[in-house]
Amino acid sequence: MVRLHSHRIDLREQSLIPLDAAGPIRLFSGETNSERPGSEAAGRICHVRASADVRRTRAQGEAITNRFNSKSDASEIPPLAGRRILITRAPRQASELADRLRDLGATPILIPTIEIGPPSSYATLDAALASLSSFGLVVFTSANAVDAYRGRAQLLSVSGTPRRIAVVGPATARALEAIGLHAGVMPATYTAEALGQTLAPEMRGCRVLLVLAEDAPAILRDALAAAGADVTVAAAYRNRIPEASLAAVTSLFGDAAAYPDAVTFTSASTAANLVALLDAAGLALPASVARASIGPITSRALRELGLPPHVEAAESTIPALVEALTTHFCAL
Questions:
Q1: Most exposed: 46, 186, 277, 316, by fewest CB within 10 Å?
Q2: Sheet holding 137-140, edge to edge
Q3: Buried b (16+ CB within 10 A) or exposed e, 271-306
């Protein structure tokens, strides 16, 4: 587990959050995010000093709840009105989840527990790109893998395209389409295990390039190799903990009045890294905060951390995660 140096936060300073803010709350320490205030991608994001009193975020949620409760027709109240939900995704990937939650009345709180960086070496990926035509199949396990692949291909002036492509789910397929490529294989269930099972019958003697995160679980690699494939694993990027998020996590979970109603986990890394950040701050994830998982692999990671999910999406997609959260809170 990654250990970070802990430091305490002075909660007495004034917050920068206007109570009528329309966008998600983003808590962070320093300018570490790729989306900056005023940019088209950022939209209306309320930036909060790491030392700010995050109890103001609770006040914002209460203000939203009061505004909706003033409606005469209860059917007009969005199902997540007043709910404050922590999003742990990398900043560049958090907007869809934040937008969907906000549309249902929730107040998203953005504290990334992962950031994307380069792998320790591109040597394997670069060598594979130089002999791309020798691979019968290229497999991408995330949109980040697609982005890194494209970046290296452009840098090395690789003009060829994969003979056949497989992806783990629709978000990865969309990332491919954005760069003019098409996935020929996608499992019905969006997990690495399901993709391995889908590909297994045709893997004997196939040379496969697996493009993924450094230190990613070996589930898919092992499944393909067991089915007879010659697998080359190419690290395209690395998930790491944003140290700047430590102060924000400390502020949010250091005061019971500031606790969110739920926290979303969209990968095993988001779960492990939030626990590492809390551990560095001398804190633990409160039992009162609902834990929402995007799918079985993330849920397994949460259970291994001693934090079984309260909510699991029916399929590993953002819309399904939001639907599961909505169902959970409507049942309370």
A1: 186
A2: 115-117, 230-240, 207-213, 137-140, 165-167
A3: bbbbbbbbebbeeebeeebbbbbbbbbbbbbbeebe
SS (H, E, C) the chain: CCCCCCCCCCCCECCCCCCCCCCCEEECCCCCCCCCCCCCCCCCCEEECCCECCHHHHHHHHHHHHHHHCCCCHHHCCCCCCCEEEECCCHHHCHHHHHHHHHCCCEEEECCCCEEECCCCCHHHHHHHHCHHHCCEEEECCHHHHHHHHHHHHHCCCCCCCCCEEECCHHHHHHHHHCCCCCCECCCCCCHHHHHHHHHHHCCCCEEEEEEECCCCCHHHHHHHHCCCEEEEEEEEEEECCCCHHHHHHHHHCCHHHCCCEEEECCHHHHHHHHHHHHHCCCCCCCCCEEEECCHHHHHHHHHCCCCCCEECCCCCHHHHHHHHHHHHHCC
**Short-list 321, 107, 120, CA closest to 236:** 120
Give residue 144's Cα distance to chain centre: 11
Would you list the domain boundaries of the chain?
25-114+242-330, 118-238
Q: What is the residue whose two structure tokens read 């990654």?
A: 2
The C-alpha atoms of residue 194 and residue 320 are separated, in whole angstroms, by 18
Mean pLDDT by 10 residues, the chain (332 residues): 37 27 43 30 32 46 52 72 95 89 96 95 97 97 95 95 96 96 96 95 97 93 98 96 94 95 95 96 97 95 97 95 97 90
CATH of span 118-238: 3.40.50.10090
CATH number of 25-114+242-330: 3.40.50.10090
Predicted structure pTM score = 0.73
